[in-house]
Amino acid sequence: MPVWRGFTSISFPLLYVIYILYGVSYTLVIFAIAVLTVNLIQRRPVRIVFFNPAQLIVSFFLSHILLFHAIPILEKFTDSEIMLGLAQYSMLLALFLLFNNLIVDMVLVIRPQPYPFKIWLQKSITEGLSGLVSLLYGFLLYFIGQDRGEIDIFSYFFFFSPLVGLALLSSVIVRLRKERKRLKALFNITNELNQMLPTQKWLSKLKESFQDFMNVDALLLWVKEGGEWQLAIKDGHVRKNAETTSNLLSSFDEVKSPLIFDNRKKGFGPADSFFEKDIKSAVYSPLVIDNETVGMFFVGRSRTRSFEDEDIRSIATLSNQLAVILKTKMLFNEKEKRIVLEERNRIAREIHDGLAQTLAGAVMKLDTAGKKIAKQPQVTAMLVKESILGLRESLKEVRASIYALRPYPTERTGLKMAIANKIEAVRKDHGKIIHFEVRGHEEELSPMAEKVLFDTFKESIQNAVKHSNADKLEVLLSYQSEHILLKIKDNGKGFSLFQAMLKARTQPHFGILQMNDAADKINASLQIDSHEGSGTEVTIIVPKMGFEGGSQIDQADAGG
Fold it and tell me: How far, in Å, CA of 448 to CA of 507, rounded?
């Protein structure tokens, strides 16, 4: 039965009826058989299967002995049979809860794991609520049964049937709540991790959120990068030298489904050296996608046979989600490497076609000038002058290339600060009124996404200042749940979008077509609203399930 911050057993009223009808011997035997059967059905470890019945029997027997010696004292204070019965019931219940909790506390203090005051307090409150429910039901038993003569078995059955029904219904509700909580935690974990890609914070977020998903004592996540196993997460009762045993993971390359080890004494598999000695059961769950093992998830608990079928299915589901995330991360890394390579090739082509050709021409002219300096001084002077002009242009190109190779403003300060710095510079240089608003909690984006957003902002604000004759601009940067929105609005003269598109095809600068192509690279959408005489509004939206952590479906469609 669920109570405040926990669950409790409400079997004491039934136990008490057996006690007053058949005596302590029958009660202890029936109680032991019932508890033993429940533990066996739930497949609990052997030590718990035998310890729980013994603990409860000892607690009840000690309570019976003390009650037996206290009955003469209780009879002196009351002549009423009902009041005497209530006093006996209350005393037996209080003693049973006291002894039972003392035994449990002794065991929890002796064991190696810590037993903090917070857990003791929560356990005590839960047991107190259990005692309160049992006390109220026991009072009902005496008050309803008074002046009714002998009560037969059917009366007892109908009296306790609501209690049993409540217990069964509560058990179903508890299981449903547990599964709902687990599904919600799984959704939150995968949703947060998807939004964080391709940044590096997703590993720490997984480590923080996993305990909400499932309570375990040891956690390890290995990922395969470049054909080698790398330890990504280590938490709980894991040995310090786990990183040095990565060679053991080669045996997991062919594992495609979870491996369950219920009892360490019967073998723990190749990963036995990963866990501390107190870990008694473990699940090894591979991260498989496209029949390729890209990672391995290890979780362990300090009790044998502690992973149920629902736990294993949940771990396997999370592993499948992590496999997709890791594969997506790999694709992002490959895409960014390809973009960097394309940029390097572009710079190399520009140097070869521009700077190198200019320098080669200047060298040839200076060489010719050196040969004609004595016979044709005027021609020499002209050649030297042309060479100087060419070298000055080359110097400009070199400076531009050096500036382009410097860290981008968004890489140095972040997107929000880069936009704020640019706005401040425009205010000083042009005296424009610019209102900048940021909504939502600032999030780290990929360098590529921040660059495209900043380039779009920079081009839009330059167009507003130079061509639109705007004197007032509004800039909005909004971090929303599903996407990042950047909007630049001005009160300038506006323009014809159709004419601008035609003009952009023939001009090489970063115009509308280039802005749109850059947005496509990160699966963003670009929208430009402008009419002659009514200002311009540029909006770019970057979905978090796009370049920042989504699937490759849209990219595949675009490539097809």
Answer: 24
230, two tokens: 């790398």
CA dihedral 166, 170, 172, 173 (to 10 degrees): 130
- Give the burial class of 481: count Cβ atoms within 10 A of its Cβ; 0-12 exposed, 13-18 middle, 19 or more buried: exposed
Number of H helices, E strands in the chain: 15, 12
Amino acid identity, position 227:
G
Read off the pLDDT of residues 493-524 as tens digits, 9 standing for 90 and up.
887 766 666 665 565 444 677 788 888 878 88
In this structure, are residues 275 and 300 in contact, taking their beta carbons and an 8 Å threshold?
A: yes
pTM above 0.85, yes or no: no
What interhelical angle do 153-196 and 12-41 show, nearest 10?
Answer: 50
Instruction: Report the C-alpha gap between 505 and 150 in whole angstroms.
Output: 101
Q: Is 371 exposed, middle or buried (0-12, 13-18, 19+ CB in 10 A)?
A: exposed
Question: For residue 229, what is the DSSP state?
Answer: E
Looking only at the bridges linking them, the beta strands covering 472-479 and 433-439 are parallel
Cβ atoms within 10 Å of 217's Cβ, excluding its own: 22
Pick the closest to residue 286 from 326, 334, 247 (CA basis): 326
Cβ contact 86:74 at 8 Å: no
